[in-house]
Structure formats: C-alpha cells, structure tokens
Amino acid sequence: MFDAVIDFIRSHFRTTDFIPLHEPRFWGRELEYVKQCxxxxxxxxxxxxxxxxxxxxxxxxxxxxAVATVNGTCGLHVAxxxxxxxxxxxxxxxxxxxxxxxxxxxxxxxxxxxxxxDRDTLGLSPDALTQFLDSETKRDSHTGSLINIATNRTIxxxxxxxxxxxxxxxxxxxxxxxRYGIPVVEDAAESLGSRFHSVHTGRYGxxxxxxxxxxxxxxxxxxxxxxxxxxxxxxxxxxxxxxAKVPHRWEFNHDEIGYNYRMPNINAALACAQxxxxxxxxxxxxxxxxxxxxFFDNTDMTFITEPNHAHSNYWLNxxxxxxxxxxxxxxEATNDAGVMxxxxxxxxxxxxxxxxxxxxxxxxxxWLADRVVNVPSSSVDLR
Length: 383
Ligand SMILES: Cc1ncc(COP(=O)(O)O)c(C=O)c1O
What we know:
Blueprint: H1 2-13, H2 30-40, H3 48-61, E1 65-69, H4 72-83, E2 90-94, H5 99-107, E3 111-115, H6 126-136, E4 137-139, E5 146-148, E6 155-159, H7 170-180, E7 185-187, E8 195-196, E9 199-200, E10 207-211, E11 224-228, H8 231-241, H9 265-276, H10 278-297, E12 302-303, E13 310-311, E14 317-320, H11 324-336, E15 342-343, H12 363-371, E16 372-375
Parallel strand pairs: 2-3, 2-6, 7-10
Antiparallel strand pairs: 1-11, 4-5, 8-9, 8-13, 10-11, 12-14, 14-16, 15-16
Helix pairs in contact: 2-9, 3-9, 4-5, 4-8, 6-7
C-alpha cells in the first residue's frame, strides 16, 4: 500500500528526484523587489517594503494594524508582552505544537500550562479548556486575578494554535476566555490564508501572529507579522519591536527595554512579492489537498481535512495512521523512497524544559502524536 502512496505523490509532483516536505516557490516579482531594495540602500529596519508589507498583510487579513517582525517566534513574544503577560505568570496553550509556541511564553518570563487538543482540528479543545478553567482555577480575593490552584500562578493569556493551517474552534475558545477575562493571542504561524467562518485566523484573538519562515505558505526568508484591531496594542508592539526608541530626528532615547525585532526591509521585499502570489499558492495547495483526499479515501489511512466552517490553507497535509507501529513503517518506506514525510512534533509537555509544567490529561494530544504524519505539501504550478 505504501508503494501506491509513493507513486501517487511522485505523479503529482512529476519528479523522480527527492521530494521535500515543503519548498518555497519564487514565481513572482521577488528578484525585482529585492533588487529595488538593494538599489535603494535601505536594506535594514527602515524602508518602503517593510511599511508596504504591513499595509498589505493588514489589508489581506482584514486586520486594522500589522507589525512586521524578524520571525514568528519574536512576534509571539512581543504579542504576549503587549497582551499583558508578566514574568511569573502562566499561559495556557496546547502541548501539540512546534516548540516556538512554548518558547515565546518562556521569553515573556511566563510558564506554559498545557491543555488538550481536539482530534479533528488538532487545535486547543474548548471542552478541555472549559474543564480546566471551571475546576482548576480560582479568583485571587485581593487582585481578582485568575489563579491556577495547582501552581498558585496567575493565568494571564491563552495561546491556541492553528495546526498545519487548519483553524481550531477559535470562536468558542475566545468566548470561554472572555468569560474568564483572559486575552487570547493566536499562534497563527502556520495559517496565513486560513479562515474560520470567513474571518481570517489571527483576527479572533486580541492579537494574532504569522510566520514567514522558509517552510511556510509564503516566505520572507525569515519573518513574521503581528496583527490586531487595537491601535494601542499595535503601537506598543511596534515600539517594543523597534528597541523602544522614542521618535526624534537625532536623539537616542529609549523609554523601556525593547527588542531589535523589526523585519528588515530586504526580507520585506521578498514578503511583498510573495504576498502578491498568496492567492495562487492557496489554489495550488487546496488542489493538492483535494487530490490527497480522493486518493486516501480508498485506503486505510485517514487524510485530515479542514474542520467544519473552516477554509484551510492546507499548509502541511497530514494523515492519521492506525497506530505508532504503522506510522513508523510508513515513515521508513516513504523516506527510503526519497519522498519526505515526518511525524508531528513530540509533545511540548514531554520536552525536558517543559516536563514540570502543569498539564491536563492530554489524551488526544498523545493519541495524535503517535499517529500523525505530514506528507509533501509544496505548491505545484498548475497553470
Ligand atoms: C506553531 C508555530 N509557532 C511559531 C512558529 C515560529 O515561527 P518562526 O519560525 O517564524 O519563528 C512556527 C514556525 O516556525 C510554528 O509552526
């Protein structure tokens, strides 16, 4: 059966060479814009492309403001800080995620607190979240803060993630968090182009963060973007990502500890050219997902499709295997044949630096971690 999968993937990508999991495509005006940027000499944190990228990504997602960052991890770090996360706090997130989600929480001085995911969306489970908040937290009688009873730490934010681009039940998550007064920062690193109930991911929370890493749907080499509808949060995010410099024509004055996190103009040149093609990339990726869906319908492997009410970018296509042994046989057969496949990340709650963090049952996350694999997902030009 695995031979048929390998043949199917090879026929779609039309090559006998090695097939990577996800390659960037530079089919547009990338060289032209990068050359323009070099000719202008504005290759660093100031320039027309970085401002334009912010305007373009805000327009595309429908957000009022966007702040360009050097990568998604730094974007998440700053988003958490402007959302009010303080050193010593705890931030709710999912254990089934890339390490950057938990690392960004740590950079903000906080500790992750892991809640389970849903098996169908692969994202934070509203039921598990409700259960945790209802039964394992209390209000501090003096400050009114929400406290995790087990750790005695203040819970100051929640970071759901849209796994492989598939939107999680973000409307319910925001509603639950609103009830408890916790801001939601969406880790939308993987979901540029994905919508839930027609609203772009990253727009449900107070802030959302995208990644433009080389393996994402569009890339700026390295890069990220924070989006928000809140002017004050946007200004503060911009301030913190630009070394907290107080604007002045010649004086250097910084009013707090900021970061050198602004996306360089030369990366933004690439980002602008890539964003122009996002629509086409999404067509290619959804087309590939359709082909995978039809193929895997006739097999004993389950292709993960977009959840109800979601329009996914299908950033990384994924399958669920019957068990871990079969997953491992699949990984071996495909990688031996030069078709790159990969298991989902190991759970963050099992990494040595996060092993002692508070965690709920994580039954679904564990179940998925044993069974999910990613298959090649690069855009194939169908024109
Ligand atoms: C879920 C998730 N969060 C955060 C990041 C961090 O983004 P970056 O690599 O741009 O720092 C990534 C991707 O790399 C990711 O997949």
